[in-house]
Amino acid sequence: MTPEQLKASILQYAIQGKLVEQRAEEGNAEDLYKQIQAEKQQLIKDGKIKKSKPLPPISADEIPFDIPDTWKWVRFDEFGVYKKGPFGSALTKSMFVPKSKDTIKVYEQKNAIQKNAQIGDYYITREYFENKMKGFEVLSGDVIVSCAGTIGETYVLPDNIEQGIINQALMRMTLMQSVNRDYFLLYFDVVLKDTARKSSKGSAIKNIPPFDVLKSYPVPLPPLAEQRRIVEKIEQLLPLVDIYAKAYEKLEQLNTKFPDEMKKAILQYAIQGKLVEQRAEEDNAEELYTQIVEDREQRIKAKELKKDKRLNLIDIEEPPFDIPINWKWVTIGSIVLKLTDGTHKTPKYAESGVKFVSVKDMSTGKLSLDNTKFITKEEHKELFTRCNPQRGDMLLSKIGTTGVPAIVDTDEEFSLFVSVALLKYNHQYIVEKYLYYLLLSPVVQMQATENTRGVGNKNWVLDAICKTLIPLPPLAEQRRIVEKIEQLLPLCDKLK
């Protein structure tokens, strides 16, 4: 249950008479209702308010839930007197004047929303107030309600406010003294605000429902003493809801982070040699590394590859962590056949032709050719001689969001931009998915972050990628690691 749902449940219980017990000595709402009506009639008799049109009795179809026998359903209109702000033409910005001793404040919607009577700097002349706007005056203790846009926000005007009127986006509520104001606002907050929003008129700017609709809403009325006890109980509970909300937020953050943190932990265990057991019959990574180097040298001699000085194993003085004895610390550059990036020159784009891949087309960890730009076949042919991505190769983001790998899983030819690095390797010695998960692992991601340079368009340069330290397991263990990872990662997704 969310904090909002918990608060709503408490408030709903309150207005259903389930939050505090009923006490016989506190009388009943029927007597209170008569008292409210007598107070209202006296105000009419004294000329302080106008007589409103009588409303029909509340039918059974209008009653949304049961209430205690000592309570009574009454109409919203019977709680007090309500006044909507003046029509637009009666109060426009052209009428506003600088504040002075002869001006009257115009209260705005933000006074209700921000619960602050002091903000705002709109004023009208006292003369215009006396002649046209006196009926819209608000006094200390009145409740102002936001009626447009963000509707239903209430604010009780405090003592010693500036003399003022409401504007078009406010409604004034003057409640009967026989009603507990806090209980009434509680009902307004629980039911009426939501109902008002759902039935509000307008499209771009929502407005509170018409008065005839608003005034006819049924309201559950408890005895006055019970109203006070309900408010007191809620004031005890809401701080506990706030505590719950903080704990809930921490739990939500933990739940959000936990699946990703678990994935990272699995990948970290995998590349530390802790995810599957080591087997003596699987040889060792030293022999595997020798095969990788010999294979690359033979290809260079056969002129299948150009010699690249960067693709050598650097001295590794302090490995990031311990690995099994049959594994070997290497660098990315020392195990690949080719490490390059896409063209450094922005090509001339075409409406059709060969697809041109940049970091945006693989930043999710999967290559997508659905929304690429295009270059001509002639330009592609020239670029492809240096950077030739093919099925099974590994792409690696190196500009912007760096360190994201993606496997080339298509036979369709395409060209690369400088933001993407291309890693070619011998699949006889390196398992495709092992390399992919290795590049995603914390040890590589940390090095990508540490070695990415620049302020605006950050760059993980090829030299730094070449020197990135990685653990190399025997070939058979690479396959078993991938199998175990792919059993576990889907379980992490189920935690979301």
Please describe what this structure looks like.
It is a single chain. By secondary structure, the chain is α+β, with helices and mostly antiparallel strands. The protein has 14 helices and 20 strands. The chain has helices at residues 3-15, 29-45, 109-113, 126-133, 181-198, 211-214, 224-271, 285-301, 332-335, 377-384, 432-440, 442-451, 462-466, 475-493; strands at residues 72-75, 80-84, 103-107, 123-125, 137-138, 143-146, 154-156, 164-166, 170-175, 218-221, 328-331, 338-341, 349-350, 354-357, 373-375, 394-397, 405-407, 414-416, 420-424, 469-472. The strands form six sheets. Strands 2-9-6-7 form a four-stranded antiparallel sheet. A four-stranded mixed sheet has the order 4-3-8-5. The longest helix has 48 residues, at 224-271. The chain starts with a helix and ends with a helix.
Which term fits the overall shape? elongated
Query: In percent, how helical is the residue content?
Result: 25-40%
Q: What structural class do you assign from the helix and strand content?
A: alpha+beta
Provide the low-confidence segments as ranges.
201-205
Strand composition percent = 15-25%
Q: For the largest beta sheet, what order do the strands appear in spatially?
A: 2-9-6-7
The N- to C-terminal Cα distance equals 16 Å
- Cα Rg: 37 Å
Number of strands: 20
- Count of alpha/pi helices: 14
Mean pLDDT: 89
Largest sheet: 4 strands, antiparallel
